[in-house]
Design a protein that fits this description.
By secondary structure, the protein is an alpha/beta fold. It is built from ten helices and 15 strands. The strands form four sheets. Strands 6-5-4-9-12-14-15 form a seven-stranded parallel beta sheet, with helices on both faces. It has a three-stranded antiparallel beta sheet with strand order 1-3-2. A three-stranded antiparallel beta sheet has the order 10-11-13. Helix 7 links the parallel strand 5 and strand 6.
């Protein structure tokens, strides 16, 4: 049945279609409605499957075909922080590691920087394809930035030059991000070049871990980064269902999650 919307709801929907997202403050100004009215509209539009709620607003529902860092960085922040803290604890002193691009790996870098600054771990070297990770870790440990073609949407570099650059390295551990995961296809990315880079990194690492909030399970993007059997562990948040935990156990996959 076709949904009917009033003028204020249509104004917000039209704005989101054109601009991909809208904050609560922007919606209040746009519709001249109260903040509580705007929140009720957001809830209605989410229930109707027209938008997705994010921190401080709503955004357009999208298939996993595009990636815009400025949008994704505001989603599932607490879950990503939880995952990042777990991942950072897997790093030991004197290790040479790779940290992938992404908003979840960003949280890992924040937690890792805290461990380094406190003196809890020492003498680590991080290789990354993310300029965000470089900004976070550059002041507290040695960071090597991968060369390659820069993506303004993803805030990272990838491509043939990046893969060639990495051929010279062998990592103790790699920490990869993902845009989606299914038990049939494995870990997937909206970027083919990032997928290929992830595959290369997993082959060059003694241990590979994938950071993934539970909402990505069942979502599939175009490029396959790596299969489940090529990963040593999944780091996820406590919202993961028991059913999915059981399925990972069937595949003999170690899952790191907050107790």
């Amino acid at each position: 049945m076709k949904k009917e919307y009033n003028l204020k709801e249509m104004e917000i929907l039209d704005y989101v279609q054109r601009n991909h997202m809208i904050t609560t403050a922007e919606a209040v100004e746009l519709t001249n409605a109260s903040e509580s009215t705007v929140r009720r509209i957001f809830i209605k539009l989410q229930k109707d499957g027209r938008v997705e709620r994010i921190f401080g607003g709503i955004k357009k529902i999208q298939e996993l075909e595009t990636y815009h860092y400025h949008e994704i960085v505001t989603t599932n922040v607490e879950q990503k922080r939880e995952i990042g803290e777990i991942a950072a604890q897997l790093v030991d002193s004197n290790e040479f590691i790779y940290i992938d691009c992404g908003t979840t790996t960003r949280q890992m870098c924040e937690a890792l920087a805290d461990r380094v600054k406190s003196g809890e771990i020492q003498n680590i070297v991080v290789v990354t394809n993310s300029v965000i990770n470089l900004e976070i870790l550059g002041a507290c440990c040695e960071v090597i930035i991968v060369g390659g073609r820069y993506s303004t949407d993803r805030k990272d570099v990838s491509g043939n030059l990046s893969e060639t650059f990495l051929e010279h390295f062998r990592f103790h551990k790699s920490f990869l991000g993902t845009d989606g995961f299914s038990f049939e296809q494995g870990f997937t990315s909206t970027s083919a070049t990032v997928s290929l880079l992830g595959k290369a990194v997993s082959r060059l690492s003694e241990q590979s871990f994938v950071l993934m909030d539970a909402s990505k399970i069942g979502k599939v993007a175009a490029g396959i980064t790596c299969r489940l059997e090529n990963v040593d562990g999944i780091i996820t948040d406590s919202a993961i269902s028991q059913e999915n935990l059981d399925r990972f156990a069937e595949h003999k996959m170690k899952v790191f999650v907050k107790k």
